[in-house]
């Protein structure tokens, strides 16, 4: 029996475990945490840091030596920014992957931006900064506002929107505290609608399965932190804008050296047209790939990503939407403090169109200041006949959950 390896065993990876299992594979998961939730669905578990390619590779080699009856047929991840780990294991075992070089570009925002600039892929102005004074120089060259971010960040940790009122040393220290490699960069802040895309590159052509509007309605509330409060499909884009964005993602992926595989885009439609903020070489998290895209379009990108990782043919027609339904996700942002009581969850099932509701916190938990996406307290996903109905339903549902604080 062949085995299928999934890097990471978090809650957002559960669907990949279920699918690989249902496809008849011996599912092996890796995670540093022996209690990781998706391990319950794995046939075997490997304890290793997903962020440490060599640690994971050594542990996988050992597993394969001890279990010759389960040769590896493929490796993937989902919702987990570990492209180098996936590519390192794949290359060692001769499995399909984007390759280590492309993965290294995907893992370093500065390297990625350089590759975009060298290949005329529209992106923000950017430069590395080595001290707070460099931010002032960038502001003089490009004007405020600016974005300061770690080159190796994820989940918007340490991504700050800066204007002239900010204490730059404080911003610097805050952003730097999230960089494992100790490197920061600045970009000009591009104003315009923000879009999430998820696409499959097939033989150097990009096929975008889904475009979603990202909701930054709380930008002022959480500033300088950039916190997204969910998203909505279908995105408010013309057919021509979709075409432009698809082409942009394609040129960005090719510039990174990705000719086949899943690419997830953070796009902003700026005054001069769409720009790429970044491309992740993996399936998205936040239940976009696992729930929102299948609900809105009928496309199961997780299944396609597994097929691709196994080296099976994924054809363009498999990435074509079969419907364009309304789907919206919004997050819970309880006030800071200790939760005394949460009410309303049991009544959610009476509300129309609610597809999924998850609360990450319980009574007695302390709600911190929201500084990054992992600080959001949970979410609701709702469907509707179109975007308006989906948004109205999800917003009503979010408001119906009441957090009483101590
Ligand atoms: N130059 C920019 N102009 C406009 N918005 C930006 C810019 N840079 C970042 N953002 C916004 O901040 C978000 C987080 O930035 P970025 O994607 O670089 O960090 P991240 O840690 O990878 O976050 P995530 O995991 O949410 O993608 C972006 O998705 C985008 O919405
Ligand atoms: Mg990002």
Can you tell me the CATH superfamily of the largest domain? ATP-grasp fold, B domain
Named CATH architecture of the largest domain: 2-Layer Sandwich
3D shape: globular
Largest sheet: 8 strands, antiparallel
CATH class identity of the largest domain:
Alpha Beta
Number of strand elements: 19
**Tally of individual domains:** 4
The pLDDT mean sits at 97
Report the helical percentage.
25-40%
* Bound ions, cofactors and other small molecules, one mention each: adenosine-5'-triphosphate, magnesium ion
The gyration radius over C-alpha positions equals 21 Å
Low-confidence stretches: none
Q: How many individual helices?
A: 12
Beta percentage is 25-35%
Output the structural class: alpha+beta
CATH topology of the largest domain: D-amino Acid Aminotransferase, Chain A, domain 1
Q: Gap between N and C termini, in Å?
A: 54 Å
């Amino acid at each position: 029996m062949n085995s299928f390896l999934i890097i990471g065993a978090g809650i957002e990876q559960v669907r990949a475990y279920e699918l690989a299992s249902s496809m008849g594979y011996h599912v092996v998961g890796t995670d540093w945490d022996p209690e990781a939730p998706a391990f319950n669905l794995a046939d075997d578990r490997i304890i290793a840091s997903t962020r440490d390619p060599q640690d994971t590779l050594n542990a996988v080699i050992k597993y394969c030596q001890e279990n010759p009856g389960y040769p590896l047929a493929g490796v993937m991840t989902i919702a987990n920014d570990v492209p180098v780990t996936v590519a390192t294991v794949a290359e060692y075992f001769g499995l399909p992957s984007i390759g280590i070089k492309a993965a290294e570009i995907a893992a370093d925002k500065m390297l990625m931006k350089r590759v975009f600039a060298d290949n005329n892929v529209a992106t923000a102005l950017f430069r590395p900064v080595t001290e707070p004074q460099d931010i002032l120089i960038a502001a003089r060259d490009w004007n405020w506002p600016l974005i300061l971010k770690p080159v190796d960040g994820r989940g918007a940790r340490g991504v700050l929107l800066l204007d002239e009122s900010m204490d730059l040393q404080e911003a610097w220290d805050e952003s730097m505290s999230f960089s494992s490699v100790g490197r920061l960069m600045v970009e000009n802040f591009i104003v315009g609608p923000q879009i999430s895309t998820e696409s499959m590159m097939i033989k150097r052509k990009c096929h975008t399965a889904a475009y979603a509007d990202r909701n930054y309605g709380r930008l002022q509330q959480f500033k300088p932190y950039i916190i997204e409060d969910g998203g909505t499909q279908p995105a408010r884009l013309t057919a021509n804008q979709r075409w432009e964005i698809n082409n942009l993602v394609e040129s960005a992926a090719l510039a990174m050296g990705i000719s086949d595989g899943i690419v997830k885009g953070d796009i902003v439609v700026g005054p001069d047209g769409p720009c790429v903020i970044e491309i992740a070489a993996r399936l998205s998290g936040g239940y976009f790939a696992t729930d929102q895209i299948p609900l809105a379009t009928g496309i199961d990108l997780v299944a396609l990503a597994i097929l691709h990782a196994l080296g099976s043919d994924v054809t363009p027609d498999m990435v074509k939407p079969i419907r364009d339904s309304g789907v919206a996700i919004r997050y819970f942002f309880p006030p800071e403090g200790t939760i005394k009581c949460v009410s309303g969850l049991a009544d959610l099932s009476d509300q129309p169109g609610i597809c999924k509701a998850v609360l990450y916190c319980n009574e007695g938990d302390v709600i911190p200041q929201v500084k990054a996406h992992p600080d959001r307290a949970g979410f609701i996903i709702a469907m509707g006949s179109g975007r308006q109905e989906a948004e109205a339903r999800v917003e009503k549902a979010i408001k119906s959950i009441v957090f009483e604080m101590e």
